[in-house]
Amino acid sequence: MLGKIALEECWTIPEELSNNDPGKFVASGTGSRLTNELLDVHDMRLKQMDENGVDFMILSFVAPGCQGIPDKAKAEAQARLANDRIEAEVAKAPTRFAAFAALSMHDPAQAAEELRRCGEDGNGMLYFDQPEYDVFWKAAAELGAAVYMHPRPSNELIHKLMWEGRPWLDFSALGYADRLNMHILGIVTNGVLDRFPKLKILFGHMGEHIPYDLYRIDHKLDRGRFPNMPMRKDKLVRDYFGEQLFITTSGHFSTSALMFAIGEIGAHSIMFSIDYPFESIPNACVWWDDHVWPNINQHDYTNIGRNNVLKVLPRLTEEPHNLKPMTPRQCEDRF
Amino acid sequence: MLGKIALEECWTIPEELSNNDPGKFVASGTGSRLTNELLDVHDMRLKQMDENGVDFMILSFVAPGCQGIPDKAKAEAQARLANDRIEAEVAKAPTRFAAFAALSMHDPAQAAEELRRCGEDGNGMLYFDQPEYDVFWKAAAELGAAVYMHPRPSNELIHKLMWEGRPWLDFSALGYADRLNMHILGIVTNGVLDRFPKLKILFGHMGEHIPYDLYRIDHKLDRGRFPNMPMRKDKLVRDYFGEQLFITTSGHFSTSALMFAIGEIGAHSIMFSIDYPFESIPNACVWWDDHVWPNINQHDYTNIGRNNVLKVLPRLTEEPHNLKPMTPRQCEDRF
Amino acid sequence: MLGKIALEECWTIPEELSNNDPGKFVASGTGSRLTNELLDVHDMRLKQMDENGVDFMILSFVAPGCQGIPDKAKAEAQARLANDRIEAEVAKAPTRFAAFAALSMHDPAQAAEELRRCGEDGNGMLYFDQPEYDVFWKAAAELGAAVYMHPRPSNELIHKLMWEGRPWLDFSALGYADRLNMHILGIVTNGVLDRFPKLKILFGHMGEHIPYDLYRIDHKLDRGRFPNMPMRKDKLVRDYFGEQLFITTSGHFSTSALMFAIGEIGAHSIMFSIDYPFESIPNACVWWDDHVWPNINQHDYTNIGRNNVLKVLPRLTEEPHNLKPMTPRQCEDRF
Amino acid sequence: MLGKIALEECWTIPEELSNNDPGKFVASGTGSRLTNELLDVHDMRLKQMDENGVDFMILSFVAPGCQGIPDKAKAEAQARLANDRIEAEVAKAPTRFAAFAALSMHDPAQAAEELRRCGEDGNGMLYFDQPEYDVFWKAAAELGAAVYMHPRPSNELIHKLMWEGRPWLDFSALGYADRLNMHILGIVTNGVLDRFPKLKILFGHMGEHIPYDLYRIDHKLDRGRFPNMPMRKDKLVRDYFGEQLFITTSGHFSTSALMFAIGEIGAHSIMFSIDYPFESIPNACVWWDDHVWPNINQHDYTNIGRNNVLKVLPRLTEEPHNLKPMTPRQCEDRF
């Protein structure tokens, strides 16, 4: 498929490497490859995009990013630096790249301010569903920003308590999803989406388990037992999908899971993504181009592959990105 | 459907109530109903089974059971008491009931011994995938026992660290699944199933999220990064389903999720269950009888509803239970 | 679901009964019930619509209608009579009913003229994919009319040649679909949709087998062997769905088939319908309200149940029908 | 996947070419390729089987075969010749090939006798669901033979009446399925399977549309209107799948259609096939090896790819073919 847009794609800056060495998350000896891919925007990355029909990428500062820096002032400075740096990179090729702003999130008011300064969509890592963070969510909603929730490693205490003896499960195989689904549902059930009805939350990996358990989640959210749960009493978690909750395919290249998700939450709630460089661009695109097609119809296929994100993040249709919806015919490379 | 067998069905004894008051897990004012349903075997429970085409139930001592008692000796005594008591109940109607043995699990060797004493299938709550528990798994495998993994509430520390501010998510809506999928995958990836190839693990709620993420789990279990992960290097987690891993429908009455699971792990890996009294017998059976049928074919339908468990737990086909497989025709109430 | 719109719903006039006795298509002794239901618009029919959340019906003159009258002049007169009569019925309750025009189709030019006279969507029974019928298709396209293709009984010769010895298969169980899929694909492959790109074709029964075989149909339409097949060489049959081909659920109340069709041709290509009085309004609505929900997401559910037809037949949004799209929330009767 | 077995695979003899020139069914200029592939067994065919993991093929005499010869005596002689010839070919490599017997079917008693003479599974093309053919079905049932129903071109009269103006639809794109589903359902509804409960009917192309419409077929087989329909009154068409009706994937390489069929009729009712040489061996096998996997679980995958046919045609497990079931692990080429 031509014209694909991908939106959970990571990058980093040299100043971040000492704080967060990507090499520790991959097999021994492969860290430098990953580091190089994270630092690069316009070289190998763009070449692979061209070769694989990826028209556009929205970049995110690699997790844990500023949220992994304990000192508040340093974290905020790092966020500003990252945002300035990526703005410059995007400016070199705005028809191929945009970026989610990186946010330190130590201080909700400052995070809100940085989000405003960037005038842009906020980058996730927000594990905070409590009222004091409303100042941040308010700013995001006012900006029409969508917040992309990235998983991040557990802290030392949680790792020790829960994952010792099975550390390989603490990351992308399972722990990321287990933690992120808790935080997303925390945001929903604490009423954040109700207080800010223009707020949109995006998350990857085909929904971090949530679509599969949607019936059970709604069935078991026990308002009798927890009468003070803040979420609107006349809504189900299911109701937020396609309106305020959206998922991407990043890192879960399963056609059967995608087909299930289309039925359960609707094709308009789903967007293609890769999770580069933690996933390979060609692998993701071979899956999308050769395996997904033609197991789903061309309209949903084109919308998931490209058009949906232009509705979720309408600023992408304006200058300088100027992305336009494409028809199934325009996207098909069989012509 | 006539002849249904259900296998994640709870009961308790009066002596357990002070240790584990079921009332605290339900809406205020409804605890006594739940308590009565847990204590009852042959009265309301059997009546509802008759009214809803449930031929047989395998009972489990309600979680956390003996595993919720900190004192090892008291826990072991409680397990013995529970197992003796349920044996007596089963003996009153062995063609309608069997029971999983309750196990304290504080001391793996003692748990193994109690499992042997009961000569029976072991009851789950086993969060122990480390080598010292091999003595227990060995006993289970030698007995041909299948171990049913029940979720249980998180302990106080975990609850405080992860679920404060969103306590409604810590239980059946999400936390049970998040914790249990970690423990099940811990058992698998730590090689327990490889060391005991006759061991079978059962779990409910349509697989505690695992079937939906199976592609990603196998894709991301990073042997390069964790070369010492004990699971056999020539197997995927996917490979254990239908041979050593089995799921039930308990508490997740979603036809679409069931249809997905049939494709992903195979109908022979799935068994009907209710999760009574945390779920209603009529609700579960209306779902199975009126909603699932005829969205899946009659052979898989009959096998999931009844026959599969007779292969997974072949002792049920012998005296005193003497359950036999039934054909789709024998199970259909349209005749 | 509140607000449902149904569009393959039949009616007739007393003058048609001698030509086409509905009683011959049903079990002996039940013909008078069917006849009464066909003749009625505002009494039993409307009452059942109210009781079952059906907001609106588009009526079609029952097949074979005018196309079953061999004499051309009589057929045309019958079509005019039927169209005048239904116009009067619709005028009594235009917020609840509209009608497809009945067309004799003996003379394509006259059929086109009658379609213009009715200023309205054309009623199907068009087995004519040859160039001489372009005058009709042209008129339909100019009017922005959608043509609903109804199955009809085979003629005597075909019945004798193919269905003797198995007459029960010649009707709604199989023969209707086998004949209609031939005619629909005849229209598509003869290039009618290419010559009239604004033309829309609607058909019922979950697509008359076509969605299930779409891969094979496109795979096997052998342009090497039939170089003169008129359909555009750069399109697949698949490409017309959602743009010029649309299906309804009439008479095929299978959730699994619906879920498959959503994947294969897209939710936007599908519209709810009943096929009253050959199907029961409550049966169809219990299926839609209780069985389909929540196996598909609420957005697709609401669109299929109501909103899609307002895009396919936009005239329904204007006076006197004045139908408006509804949100999932407005349609849900759980509020 | 290693070890695949395919069972709708065609061949022919030079003596048949004058009666039935395969070249007329393909694009001009490609007939000789097809002819060569039909005549060949041990050369190109076997080479491609080796290259693509096809362990075994069951060969069928290409349609219309003997049934296309109007003269009864000549047809019977041709059937005997074909059967003798293929027996000799199979004898050269019985661990790689078996054959369905070719039958002229002009005279049911003679066809039955030829079937007995071949001591073997009968080759389809049987459009005869009337009582006089019971002598044939009886013989097939007594032999434990499964009858594979192949589509064939329509005769001249039907072609002229129904397909003129759209001849490209009369063959594999649509007409084959429309005619074959009529004949299969004719056999079922005329009670042939009831009279011969050991009889098994096999058909290709993912079920010739029937699985998708199964709900509607059973819903609409109107016993009130046709009280003398011979099929057992206590059975549905659905009930015969997996017991007496089986389908193959030949020529319909759609993963979504396969996944639907698994749900609707059960994985045990489905067998892999290619339809060589009308389909390409590598294309079919790339679909099976790379696209189907891992969208269905490995047990169903292995059973459909190989093991199911050994239950449907158990003679294949004996000498000289001596085929054995394989485990998912044995079939997987990732080891």
UniProtKB/TrEMBL annotation, chains A, B, C, D:
Q: Which UniProt keywords apply?
A: Decarboxylase, Lyase
Q: What's one GO BP annotation on this UniProt entry?
A: secondary metabolic process
Q: Name one Pfam family in it.
A: Amidohydro_2
Any one of the GO CC terms? cytosol
Regions that span the bilayer: none
Where is the secretion signal located? none
- Start and end residues of each Amidohydrolase-related domain: 45-279
InterPro entries the UniProt entry points to: ACMSD (IPR032465), Amidohydro-rel (IPR006680), Metal_Hydrolase (IPR032466)
Return one GO MF term: carboxy-lyase activity
Q: Which domain of life is it from?
A: Eukaryota
Q: Please state which protein family the record places this protein in.
A: Belongs to the metallo-dependent hydrolases superfamily.
Stated name of the protein: Amidohydrolase-related domain-containing protein
